[in-house]
Amino acid sequence: MSCGEPHETDCSEVLDHLYEFLDSEMPDVDRDKFQHHFEECSPCLEKYGLEQAVKKLVKRCCGHDDVPADLRAKVMGRIELIRGGQTVPEHDVTATAQES
Questions:
Q1: Are 41 and 11 in contact (CB under 8 A)?
Q2: Is residue 77 assigned to a domain?
Q3: pTM here?
Q4: What is the CA radius of gyration of the chain?
Q5: How far is it, in rounded angstroms, from Cα 87 to Cα 100?
Q6: Residue 95 main-chain phi, psi, to 5 deg
Q7: DSSP one-letter code for 9
Q8: Phi-psi label, residue 22: left if phi above 0, alpha if psi -120 to 50, beta otherwise
Q9: Which entry of 7, 12, 51, 94 is 20 to 30 Å from 43 by CA?
Q10: Helix 28-40 vs helix 42-62: angle between axes, to the nearest 10 degrees?
Q11: What is the predicted pLDDT for the residue at 97?
Q12: CA distances to 9, 13, 41, 72, 92 from 78, in Å
């Protein structure tokens, strides 16, 4: 994803570390760099807004329930597949990398 314009911080770097930004798990200098990128790049800003909304929805719906380790592993595996550019069947939300 990119708006086609050159940026100081590449879109792929921003998207690879989006959850670190959302969770405030990065140094302030990197947060500032990402914030500047969002101001310049509407596709990345849109993706940020979508992920932020999903995170809020999950928090609201799941509260503070502990996530089972196997479910977390399956979700993280799916995220890695998607980040790697692989397609994941929409109908099988719990598929792991080994099952695909």
A1: yes
A2: yes
A3: 0.56
A4: 15
A5: 9
A6: -65, 140
A7: S
A8: alpha
A9: 94
A10: 120
A11: 43
A12: 26, 19, 26, 10, 10
> Which residue range forms the structural domain that includes residue 19?
11-84
Q: What is the DSSP letter of 67?
A: P
* CA of residue 44 relative to chain centroid, distance: 11
User: What is the C-alpha separation between 5 and 41, in angstroms, rounded?
Assistant: 8
Number of independent structural domains in the chain: 1
The three-class DSSP label of residue 84 is coil
H-helix or E-strand containing 43? Answer: helix 42-62
Give residue for tokens 């086609």.
4
pLDDT (tens digit per residue) in 44-85: 999 999 999 988 888 888 766 677 889 988 988 888 888 887
* Within a domain: 28: yes
Q: Rounded CA gap, 36 and 58, in Å?
A: 27
